[in-house]
Design goal:
With 358 residues, this protein is mainly beta. The protein has helices at 159-166, 177-187, and strands at residues 2-3, 11-18, 23-30, 40-46, 55-60, 64-70, 81-86, 90-94, 100-103, 120-126, 129-134, 139-144, 147-150, 193-201, 204-211, 214-220, 225-227, 237-244, 247-252, 257-261, 265-268, 277-278, 282-284, 287-293, 298-302, 309-311, 324-330, 333-338, 342-345, 350-352. The protein contains 2 helices and 30 strands. A 5-stranded antiparallel beta sheet has the order 1-5-4-3-2, with no helix packed on it. β15 and β16 form a beta hairpin. The chain is globular. The two termini are 21 Å apart.
Length: 358
């Protein structure tokens, strides 16, 4: 990475990944930029480095959607490296011996080879492979360098069928419009947005998201995709944590938290009604940590086996931004990142990490 240079504009953080107990990687964009602006800056903070040598950055010409760590068996499975996913299906491998970039064919919205299914959302390693998912039911698997393909087309949004059904629709003031609309909605192909993907093994992968306002939860058994029943009328599912084969946690909007497994089904955890948007779930010191935005927002903790959701103690310092979106634990260290905040907890008290551009 190159040495950090001064930035002239204010920034805000959008994605993060705890690299170690000492290092966190954070994506930033210019404040007020378009939601999918194709520029981003990845900052690396090294906590134990000397003052003046803690911050580094790299610039990217794509919209950063997700960050993961990848132990690549083609290179060196004994260690891992940071891997970045753009909303248009770019996959950037930040391998210290030689960075390289791939493109998931057909993924994205605006790029030349996009099939029109939508943007990508998440990337993760399962077994020795990378998997990625996104809008329009897109699910991809990486078999090797520059070798990405659809895992299954079962959920893939059929754009051609959708457009064909829209042809010849009556005007909204036509007496037949409402009956046409009801029939259209009944027969329209599913358009499912997948927000998260996690796997215990290559024959036990969970995906979650939404179809309109309905929750969507799926399980890949190595050969087929199964839709799982969610006993909620409305919810967008956003994050997955696999504790073990029989204990999987799924979080979402409106304070939703599900627990179960493919084998025994999923049930909502009986939490108090709230408007929290839970972004993800991470284990830390025997508890599950959930960063949240929207009222009331903040950092929450849950002890597995109970429905005792409470604010993390000690409480976060007063935020400088409007929300937090990330919590990642490595050993005894918990990193929390928000719109304008970077916080580190090592067991006793919170430490605020000062960013030079804020």
């Amino acid at each position: 990475m190159q040495d950090r240079k001064s930035a002239s504009s204010m920034i805000e953080f959008t994605r993060a990944c705890a690299r170690s107990d000492d290092v966190v990687v954070i994506n930033a964009v210019m404040t007020g930029s378009d939601v999918y602006a194709p520029e981003s800056r990845i900052f690396r903070f090294e906590h134990d480095a000397r003052i003046g040598e803690q911050w580094y950055y790299d610039d990217f010409d794509f919209h950063m959607q997700d960050i993961t760590l990848f132990s690549n068996p083609e290179i060196d499975a004994t260690t891992d490296y940071l891997t970045y996913l753009s909303s248009e299906g770019d996959v950037y491998h930040a391998w210290w011996k030689g960075n390289f970039r791939e493109k998931i064919p057909g993924a994205g919205t605006w790029v030349a080879d996009a099939k029109g299914h939508g943007r990508m959302s998440a990337i993760t390693q399962v077994g020795d492979k990378l998997y990625a998912c996104g809008q329009g039911g897109q699910i991809y698997r990486r078999q090797g360098r520059d070798n990405w393909s659809l895992l299954t087309d079962k959920l893939l949004f059929d754009m051609a069928s959708y457009q064909k059904r829209k042809e010849g629709r009556p005007r909204t003031d036509d007496p037949n419009y409402l009956s046409w609309l009801r029939e259209f909605q009944k027969q329209a192909p599913k358009n499912i947005s997948l927000n998260a993907i996690k796997g215990l093994s290559e024959d036990a992968i969970y995906l979650c998201g939404s179809e309109g306002t309905r929750p969507a939860l799926y399980f890949w058994d190595g050969s087929a995709l199964h839709e799982l029943k969610v006993h909620l009328e409305e919810a967008a599912l956003t994050g997955i944590h696999i504790e073990h084969a029989d204990s999987v946690w799924v979080c979402g909007r409106e304070g939703v938290l599900l627990h179960g497994s493919y084998a025994r089904g999923f049930t909502p955890v009986n939490l108090r009604q709230q408007l929290n948007l839970f972004h993800m779930i991470t284990p830390y010191r025997g508890k599950l940590i959930l960063p949240s935005s929207v009222r009331p927002g903040g950092l929450f903790e849950l002890t597995p086996g109970t429905s005792d959701l409470r604010r993390f103690s000690p409480a976060l310092p007063k935020l400088r931004g409007e929300y937090i979106f990330y919590a990642g634990a490595v050993g005894d260290v918990l990193w929390v990142v928000g719109q304008k905040d970077i916080l580190r907890f090592e067991g006793n008290e919170w430490e605020r990490i000062e960013h030079p551009d804020l």
